[in-house]
Amino acid sequence: MSYILFFILSLCTLQIIGVILVNLIYREYLPSMHGMIISMSLGMMTGLLFGTVLGLLLMGDLFTSTVISILIGLSIGFFAGLPFNLSAVIEGGVSGIMGGMMGAMLGEMIPMSNPDAMIKLMTFFTVMILLLLSYLTETSIKNKELKIPIIVSNYPFLYVFVIAILFFLLRDVSVITIEDQQYH
Fold it and tell me: b/e string for 149-175 if b means 16 or more Cβ within 10 A?
């Protein structure tokens, strides 16, 4: 695994943990529908991103990449919905299962000529969805007039601009290196 891929996955993991912790702390001020949205989105996007990466890394072993990515998506969706209610837990778990399956299949089917583009695209989508979820949580809490450390809602376009520039600068950097396998 390259350092860039490790950095990307670490960044997304920290952002996922941050979203879960903020929702855990302020869960009594958030509606149950918010919990369902958070758990479904986190489970699906986590399963898609990690499934795509695992599908590329474990090329040719669809069963293992699918099972591992389903477990990752299921557990993230489960833990994201746990502070809210049983419906959020079920929705998050099912979305994580679906995202893990689709991500592993996507990673397996990507042509080996350019796997970096798909990983960068999936990471970009995941980071943007996680920023939107953070913004949704902060605006829901801010509507209750609570004193919280506002992170995203003060400068949402700044985050989008910085992330777009970062991905633009990383367009020529190799994220993943896969050995060319010859099947006979």
Answer: eeebeeeeeebeeebeeeeeebeeeeb
pLDDT of the residue at 72: 95
Rounded Cα distance, 125 and 113, in Å: 21
Task: Give the closest residue to 123 by CA, choosing from 49, 174, 65, 66.
Answer: 49
Confirm if 92 and 42 have CB atoms less than 8 A apart.
Answer: yes
Q: How far is CA 174 from CA 36, 99, 107, 179, in A?
A: 36, 25, 16, 13
Confidence of residue 184 (pLDDT cuts 50, 70, 90): very low
Looking at residue 47, its amino acid is: G
Q: The pTM is what?
A: 0.83
Average pLDDT value for the chain = 83
Orientation angle between helical segments 115-143 and 32-57, nearest 10 degrees: 170
